[in-house]
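Fold Annotation — chain and its backbone
Next Lines — sequence and tokenised fold

***
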Amino acid sequence: MGQSPAGAPSICRQPTLSPPNGARPSLVTDTLADLPRSRAQLLTENDLLRQQLMVLHRRTKTPRLTWRERLTLLLLARWVPNWKQVLQIIKPDTLLRWHREGFRLFWKLKSRLAVQTPPQRLAPETIAFIQRMARDNPLWVRNGFEASY
């Protein structure tokens, strides 16, 4: 990724037209490679590419992704087997970082909710039973029950 004038990394990455191994792309070989894939996989990959195009077609110098666009890219990338090759405007490491941040946020919020639950009280019948047992067995209370705490 390049640097923006303010020094912050920009999200745009120049798409490469040649595969990483140096071979030239071919319509025939690309079509043959897509034959074993299901229609749902191909449609999901097209949606992922279309989402990136929508970001690039904005009239800004350096387009910024909103949290909804980030979430959409994350969800679509989950269903595309070759998601690393399909990403054109962000690096795969950036997508993985967003996923980790979302995972941390999810568990942070989930753990907060568990702390706010009120403690469960014993039923009045259970409390009355314990008090009756303590009253009927004074030695048991001094030696056994209190010593266990």
